Amino acid sequence: MNTAATDPDGAGWYEIRLQGRLDERWAATFEGMTLTTGHGLTRLVGPVVDQAALHGLLLRMRDIGLPLVSVRQVEAAEPCPPRHPDTTPTGA
Amino acid sequence: MPNPLVLTKLHIPEVRRGLVPRPRLVDGRARTSPPRLTLVSAPPGFGKTTLLASWADAARTAGRAVAWVSLEGTEQQPTAFWSYVVSALDGAAPGVGAGALALLRSANPPVEAVLTLVLNELSARLEEVDLVLDDYHLADGPAIADDVAFLLLHLPPHVHLVISTRADPALPLARLRARGELAEVRAAGLRFTIEEVAAYLNGVAGLDLTTSDIAALEARTEGWIAALQLAALSLTDREDVAGFIGGFAGDDRYLVDYLVEEVIGRQSADVRRFLLETSILEGLSGSLCDAVTQQDDGRAMLEHLDRSNLFVVPLDGTRHWYRYHHLFAEVLRTHLATEAPDRVADLHRRAARWYAVDAEPVLAVRHAVAAGDVELAADIMERSAIGLLRQRQEATVRGWVDVLPADLVRRRPVLAVGFIGSLMSLGDLRTVPGRLDELEQVLAEPPADLVVLEEHELARVPGAMETYRAALALVGGDAAGTVAHADLAIARAAPGDDLTVAAAAALSGLASWAGGDLESAHRAYSLAVTGLERAGNISDVLGCSITLGDLRVTQGRLDDAERTYREALRLASVHEVDGPLRGEADMLTGLSQVALERGEIAAATAYLDQVAALGEGLGLPQHPYRWRVARARLAEADGDLSGAVTLLEEAERVYVGDFSPDVCPVAAQRARVLVRQGRVDEARDWARARQLTADDDLTYVREFEHLTLARILLHQKDGDGTARAAAVGLLDRLRVAAEEGGRTGTLIEILAVQALALHVPGRRHLQPALDTLSRALRQAEPRGYARVFVGEGAPMADLLAAIVERDPTWRYPRRLLDALTGAGPEPRREGLVDRLSSRELDVLRLLASDLSGPAIASELYVSLNTMRTHTKNVYAKLGVNERRAAVTRARELGLL
Fold it and tell me: Chain B within 8 Å of A64 (Cβ-Cβ)?
């Protein structure tokens, strides 16, 4: 097994693949995730602070009608950011 | 509900002209009754809302009423969610929500009780209702789901739930599916078929596309309606149709990205700018858009977007408020964020200011927070928190507590005290003591950067703080601390801050009441009433009057209790604006209880009939259960014991606690009726569950329960008389406690039960029982009691007969005995059930004239409703039910 060590809160790096090529502009919406595209797919990779944040991301994708292809935990590309209470507004 | 944004949530969207007809989804909705639940579950842009609107139209054509709620994500607070749902139902079937809405206005309303009220009302109606919850995923969550499931599983067969959602809800879908009570429409069924695509593009959108163009678009969009709409917009007035379709079909980009770019790329610079800048808004009105864009063409722009079908959805019938289609707004926001990232905060700030002026603090705060401007957010909160707390919106204020940095709240004492108020009223007390200490420190040594928006609000803080400390002490069971802090609060209250004085006095009264010191409690409550009356909170005056009346009844002062209720009703009639005030029903219920205590069953019934005529909605939050208890006692007096038990069980379900000590628990009252029914074992189970024993230390709060236990013990069959002996001992201790506490009303009952306990059937020696009963009678006679003896059946009749024999000249026991054995009328005073008030005499005199009802009302300067209430009172007191009989009877009695 080469996946990252499991954090009890599910913190770690995740790769989310979506059907359809998403414009680079959306990277701002999925804060902190890197967005790459190819073969009609979009690949988002980045740190997620916990399970709640992961589910929040998936809901945002659902709400723009993006079909989900896969979600998996991956090796961290850099250390996870320190955990902090979420004070960033999610838009009005 | 005056708030227009609230009304838009309940607005049923119109079925827009020029839709693709979808007979496979719509037909049949009008013809047959839908199943218990219809679920429309699919991602955005599949035409869910449009389908629901078509169904609503079909339902109304078929004669069903439609209750519609558009959820928006602010409804995850159960109270807000259920307020919208019940309001919508009440709009569809007027009256079904009145009682429930009243209950929802209390702090921490019990949702199951609210739903029980609504379900009972719905069951009693014949009309079919479709309840539609659009965008349910925005509300779905643990705080809502269980209660929605409860509602769903208890819906009467003529009420149907329709839900649209982006994710399957946490409801028992498998069970409903198995029972055939679920209809589902999912993405696969919602996608446009190739025929619908053709009908849409060539029919509705007026394009002239070839079969192969249509096939290419259908294949690329897979029938996703939102994408087809965007494609149609891109194709309108385009020269190179084939080129566009070829490019689009051969592209693998996210459909909506591709198409929105196409669509906004074809707009003028002004329209484009407008779209991007207003994409941050959830609702769009001309004035709000102007504030955000700093232009003056908002209204015209919205009309233009509406006409050109540019993804605006009207939120009301007058086309005043719109919103963007969700998907369109999402894409617009990403364009805004890349093209003008530095402007986003300003746009939110302007929206926040507009909403703040428009008195929409919730949305104002949300935009201020999105702007990252916590000081602006704090300003808006500080100005609105107290008002929101007064309107019972404590959950909204509570939601703000975690949004602001603690340091910023510390510098704002007025805001800090508002936050404490919200935490207190939701029972979230954990952090309150720390917050109070911190606040006290800040007030003692104000920091240089102290923020106070309104000086007079700062003056209220010290009194409010002590009031909260008093409340904390009360919750902690510290009666002395409660009274001490309440006294401090009254001393420190700002001049003219009548509400703080009233709240502190009421807390002090509660502490004394729970401790059994009824005289101090009465004094404190009277002070609270004075403050509330001065502050103009008449409904709260009525609320306190319930307690004042209860205290007087316990003290055996029925006449004073009656005077309290009547005075409160008089006050209410002076302050009535449009019909009766909330709380008038509670006063009538109180009068009914007093009348019943006096044995005046007809009058007691008449008062409750008046309450029924007013409607349950006019009661205070505790009224639904108090009213049922009153009806149960009346049913019991009529000999309908099982009816009484049913009503008491209903009362338990709709019971709402407040801070008041529960000195007369519904479960104990039910146990008493069980004893009368001979179900002594079940009553005994209740006593065991409550851990009551005859040797307990006695407290006032449990007095009613202990007296109930004594009644149970008396009826227990144990052969050797141990239970009876235990009852006699317990009653003797209860008697001493009631005497010491000046609770003469309770004392009379204790003596009556004690007399029964001393009267061992078959034994000749009656003297101790008769002496005890004589004592009870001497206390009861001048106070006008009857029911406490008359309700005790044959054993009491034996004792009364013995007393009559011993002292034939004493008329009171003879009258009671007659009432008990049904030989004569119940004791009445002066031929008239109840004296008429001076206002009622005015009405009576005018009833004897030729004036019509409205003319009498205007003659007396009162509303028609008030006049009707007076008239009903007059009829009830005279024992008649129409005008001519009232006049005749009044002449007989010399009142005219």
Answer: yes
